[in-house]
Automatic annotation (TrEMBL):
Pfam families: Rrf2 (PF02082). One of its GO terms (cellular component) is cytosol. It comes from Trinickia terrae. The lineage of its organism: Bacteria, Pseudomonadati, Pseudomonadota, Betaproteobacteria, Burkholderiales. Gene3D superfamilies: Winged helix-like DNA-binding domain superfamily/Winged helix DNA-binding domain. This is Rrf2 family transcriptional regulator. GO terms for molecular function: DNA-binding transcription factor activity.
Amino acid sequence: MNTSSRFAFAVHVLALLSLQEGVPLSSEIIAGSVNTNPALIRRLLSMLAEAGLTTSQLGAGGGALLAREPEDITLFDVYRAVDEAQLFALHREQPNPDCMVGRQIQGVLVGIVGDAQQAMEASLAARTLADVTADVVRAERAQERKRRRGETG
C-alpha cells in the first residue's frame, strides 16, 4: 500500500468508527467498507492504536473503537500515525556534480519541499475527524435528496 492510500484508508476507518458512536467494529466489517482485506485493516488499526487514536474491545462483539472524541483527532494526528514519508522525495542518488543543475538542485529543492510539507501539515492540523464525518453525512444527505428528486421528478 502506498503512503497516500494508507492515510486515506486510515481516515476512512476512523470516520466509520466515529459514525458508530461507541459500537465496536471488527476488522472484517471495516474491511468491507474500505473494500480491502481484514489483515490490512488490522495493521492500520495497530498503527492507529499505537498513536492513541483507536482502542480495542476484546471478546464476543468486540472490535475497534475510537480512543478520543472525533473533535480531538486532527487529520495531522492521523497522518503522523500512519505515514513516515515526506510529501515529496528528493533524488535517491547524488546528482551529477559536474552539472550546474546537478550540483545545486538538491539544496534548492530542500527549501521548496520543506515549505510544501509545512503547508500540508498545517492544512491537516486545521481539520478534525469530526469535520470529515460531518462532510460525509452532508454529502450522503445531498445524494439522497438528489435520488428522491429523480424518483419523483
